[in-house]
Amino acid sequence: MASRSPVSFARLLVVLLTLAIVASACGTAAPTTPAASPAANAPAASPAANAPAAANGGSVVFLSTQFKPIEEAERMRGTILSGFAGQVEFLPEDGGPFNDRVRAEAQANNVTVSLIGGLHGDFAPFARDGLLEDVTPLLERLKSQGYPESFIELSKLGSDQHYYVPWMQGTYLLAANKKALQYLPAGADANTLTYSQLREWAAAVNQATGQKLLGFPAGPKGLMHRFFQGYLYPSYTGSAGVVGFKSPEAVQMWTEFQQLWAEANPQSTAYEFMQEPLLSGEVWIAWDNAARLINAVRERPDEFVLLPAPAGPKGRGYMPVLAGLAIPKGAPNRAGAEQLIEYLAQPQQQIATLRENAFFPVTGVAIPQDLPAGIRLQADAVKLQANAPDALVSLLPVGLGAKGGEFNKVYLDTFTQIVLNNQPVEAVLNQQAAILQQIINDAKASCWPPDPASEGPCQVK
């Protein structure tokens, strides 16, 4: 495999992904051809409606790390995939079983999966180990859909060929009940909050109502680890949470987060989807993945607002989520997998994915004016976050493979020990840093932005 230098590619990654999110978060990505296909500007339709006639794609086993929640998986099967000319067995899995199955089938030379869907970082270990097909010819055929050149470049994973086709994108946001806005700190703008202002805001709400109405998804299936990796650590340390894991800035970060957590609803350790406590009124202010906030603003768009994440001393850290579609080596139905990728790239399916599961298009399709008000609120917040002058992009972890679960556990264990159990910050960070370093070493994972590029495994400083 021809490779770029790790330094040049890592730097390129930051620039490319920042530009891509700015360009396409609201469906305004510049097409790679002079004009997007005519269908790109057509009114939104159901996935089956307006779908071009196609030969039957046969049976496609589709393994995915995305849309694991039951409701999302049902919408994927029943709506987004419903117009495909073939039979799709959609199998959402956690990262560990996902990696294990792809590798076990390859090693046994008995591949049953024809299509895999995952995040950008999920594919790097597979590509490194020669487990993915080259999809360059397929992506060339699909360029008329208007993918940003930056996303096309990312799909190379540092090589001279393409290993996945961009599928969809998302991010994480703040949500707030409008009743909370009256308690914002003096002079604070809800769209440019700092973490200090968030704490003051939550404390003011608590004082006025007698209730702790700030919430985080710290339950067993919540995404709290992403808050630390992509939001808090970059905002305070300028790091993706590896190089700066135990830095003096990290000590300050955890100390201040203890103060913020003191204003949080104690039920946060049970919350998994923040849309539910928002709708019930248990919380008024919440952070979560946009797809896990969407039902609140979809059902009551006049009651809630969506806001960019807060900023810290180093900037407004945020984590764009780019997902793609890849074909494993030896796929039993490669033709059907390619047909399914082409189907999911069509404007109707890109918009259906936004409508149903709140992930944004990666093509040049225009966002329809008739979108529900809640989706519009989300689109506006995504754009504000990406365009913030202090925005600091933090990529999802790259190259961890089956070690992803252990990596995430380090941040959750650190949170438990420092914040929930009130153990000494520096001692916990030193202890967990050793565990983190071993995981990185075992995975042979290089640093990813905003940490500086590394030769070999990323090193905790």
Verbal overview:
The structure is a single chain. The protein is an alpha/beta fold. It folds into 2 domains: 6-170 and 321-371, D-Maltodextrin-Binding Protein, domain 2; 172-319 and 398-443, Periplasmic binding protein-like II (D-Maltodextrin-Binding Protein, domain 2, 3-Layer(aba) Sandwich). It contains 16 helices and 11 strands. Strand 1 (59-64), helix 2 and strand 2 (87-92) form a beta-alpha-beta unit. Helix 2 (70-80) packs antiparallel against helix 13, helix 7 runs parallel beside helix 9 and helix 8 crosses helix 9. The two termini are 31 Å apart. Mean pLDDT is 88; it is low at 1-53.
Descriptors:
four-stranded mixed sheet; alpha/beta; five-stranded mixed sheet; 461 residues; D-Maltodextrin-Binding Protein, domain 2; disordered N terminus
* Beta-strand segment tally: 11
| Helicity, as a percent range | 40-55%
N-to-C terminal Cα separation, in Å? 31 Å
- Beta fraction of the residues? 5-15%
Major β-sheet annotation? 5 strands, mixed
CATH fold node name of the largest domain: D-Maltodextrin-Binding Protein, domain 2
Model regions low in confidence, pLDDT < 50 over at least 5 residues = 1-53
Sheet/helix structural class = alpha/beta
Choose one word for the global shape: globular
Radius of gyration, whole Å: 21 Å
Briefly, what is this?
42% of the residues lie in helices and 11% in strands. The protein is of the alpha/beta class and 461 residues long.
Task: Give me the secondary-structure topology.
Elements: H1 6-24, E1 59-64, H2 70-80, E2 87-92, H3 95-107, E3 115-119, H4 120-128, H5 136-142, H6 149-154, E4 165-170, E5 172-177, H7 195-209, E6 214-215, H8 224-237, H9 248-261, H10 275-280, E7 285-289, H11 294-299, E8 304-307, E9 316-318, E10 321-326, H12 334-345, H13 347-357, H14 373-387, E11 391-393, H15 404-420, H16 425-443
Parallel strand pairs: 1-2, 1-3, 6-7, 9-11
Antiparallel strand pairs: 3-10, 4-10, 5-7, 5-8
Helix pairs in contact: 2-13, 7-9, 8-9, 8-15, 15-16
